[in-house]
């Protein structure tokens, strides 16, 4: 009788652990694998990250957050928030302007220099302007010349309702472990 009771205790422990893991993954955190080079140099192809699903339930989306969003039932993208709802964004001479105010993008500094050396000048981000609709954000990959993002009419601005969460921790490969600002 004692063995049966002990077995039942182990079964309960395993069921509770599985339920907790499912709740954590479904509601709080989930892993994602970066697919492609659109976020280089910040993120590399095949980097594994943790997506915080709770972040935007408790706080607001901020400019330059790296977010994961739904593109279709089978596809999620990871990009950086550049424009917030209702803002007018513009790129001129590789500089971001939001409602007429210039913003620094220090995460692109080294990449801009490298790009200009390789391509003998020219800008990493081609000039454009865009009015972000209310309830949406404008996202871009850090690899500006080779990113499908809000500039692409098939993606466009992202509804805040389609954002799954904020990605800020690379956990694999282990030598690249870091928290992304």
UniProtKB/TrEMBL annotation:
Keywords: Hydrolase, Membrane, Protease, Transmembrane, Transmembrane helix
Transmembrane segments: 13-34
Localisation per UniProt entry: Cell membrane; Membrane
Gene3D superfamilies: Umud Fragment, subunit A
Example of a GO MF term: signal peptidase activity
Ranges for domain Peptidase S26: 7-172
EC number: 3.4.21.89
Mode of membrane association: Single-pass type II membrane protein
Main location: membrane
Catalytic activity: Cleavage of hydrophobic, N-terminal signal or leader sequences from secreted and periplasmic proteins
Enzyme class: hydrolase
Family: Belongs to the peptidase S26 family.
This protein's name: Signal peptidase I
């Amino acid at each position: 009788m004692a063995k049966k009771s002990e077995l039942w205790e182990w079964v309960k422990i395993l069921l509770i652990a599985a339920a907790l893991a499912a709740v954590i993954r479904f509601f709080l955190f989930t892993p994602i694998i970066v697919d492609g080079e659109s976020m280089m140099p910040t993120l590399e192809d095949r980097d594994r990250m943790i997506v915080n699903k709770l972040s935007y339930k408790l706080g607001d989306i901020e400019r330059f957050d790296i977010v994961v969003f739904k593109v279709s039932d089978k596809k999620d993208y990871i990009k950086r928030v550049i424009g917030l709802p209702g803002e007018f964004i513009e790129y001129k001479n590789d500089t971001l302007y939001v409602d007429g105010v210039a913003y620094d993008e220090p995460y692109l500094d080294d990449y801009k220099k490298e790009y200009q050396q390789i391509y003998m000048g020219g800008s990493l981000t081609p000039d454009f302007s865009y009015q972000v609709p209310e309830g949406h954000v404008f996202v871009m990959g850090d690899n500006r010349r080779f990113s499908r993002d809000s500039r692409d009419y098939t993606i466009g601005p992202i509804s805040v309702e389609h954002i799954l969460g904020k990605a800020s921790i690379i956990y694999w490969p282990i030598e690249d472990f870091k928290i992304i600002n």
